[in-house]
Amino acid sequence: MPRHFGILVPSTNTTCEIEFCRLPAELQVHTGRLGKGGNTPFSPSLDADVAYQAKLLGEARVEVIALAQTSASLFADDYDAVTVKRMTEASGVPSLTSAEAIGRALKALKASRVAMATPYSEEVIGRARRYYETKYGIAVVASESLGADNAYAIGKMDAGVAEAAFRRIDRPDVDALVVPGGNFPTMDWIAAWERQFGKPVITTNQAALWLVLQTMKVDTPLPGKGRLLEQLPTG
């Protein structure tokens, strides 16, 4: 019996649908696209679009909806709570944000000190540092911006640039490596990175998928996508 879930992505995102479609046939994704509410690559999406597209996904009878735009959650302290409520009220199903999913995944893996390689600007990395420290008690002890200046550039980035950044920022006191950015194609690299660096690697789309599976109470491991989706820790 197929299980159906929804994702909401910024209109410029060309990665999420590809990564979420490479799943077993029983896990089927349905997507809604959102207009930008600002003029930067990391601006939150339009609230009205979030509500409308969530409503349409609800009509498709998905079981849960994930907003795959991690940076949106970093711009207001109450963004997750307000937006999850908006999505759930519009759709009638549980909802989540990918920023929340990363925080919960790190807690589930008992990772309290992380290094972050991301397309985000230094200013947005600062917001991410504050978000994960205040909401989840997770310290971003090292970080590197990969320097993308627009959403289209992020979608075309080679994941190898994150691996090179990991070599520069990883250190013994880092519990996990984090790659925020739903439009950054990284899912196929996670398992190899974990073997190379000997610690968990968490990405936006991987963490969102993990929390989607938790919400749907699906406990089938997904090999090759990192220990988060292979071990399916609860949290």
Describe the structure.
The chain is of the alpha/beta class and 235 residues long. It contains 10 helices and 8 strands. The strands form 2 sheets. The protein has a 4-stranded parallel sheet with strand order 2-1-3-4, with helices on both faces. Helix 2 packs parallel to helix 3 (79-91) and helix 4 packs across helix 9. The chain is globular and about 45 Å long. The relative contact order is 0.16. The model has no long low-confidence stretch (mean pLDDT 94).
Distance between the termini: 26 Å
Largest sheet: 4 strands, parallel
Low-confidence stretches: none
What is the second-level CATH architecture of the largest domain?
Answer: 3-Layer(aba) Sandwich
Strand neighbour order, sheet with most strands: 2-1-3-4
Return the structural class.
alpha/beta
Q: What name does the CATH topology of the largest domain carry?
A: Rossmann fold
Helix content: 40-55%
Residue share in β-strands: 15-25%
Q: Number of domains in the coordinates? A: 2
Shape: globular
| Number of distinct beta strands | 8
Radius of gyration: 16 Å
* Count of runs of 4 or more consecutive helical residues: 10
In round numbers, the mean pLDDT is 94
Which class of the largest domain in CATH terms? Alpha Beta
Order of helices and strands: EHEHEHEHEHEHHEHEHH
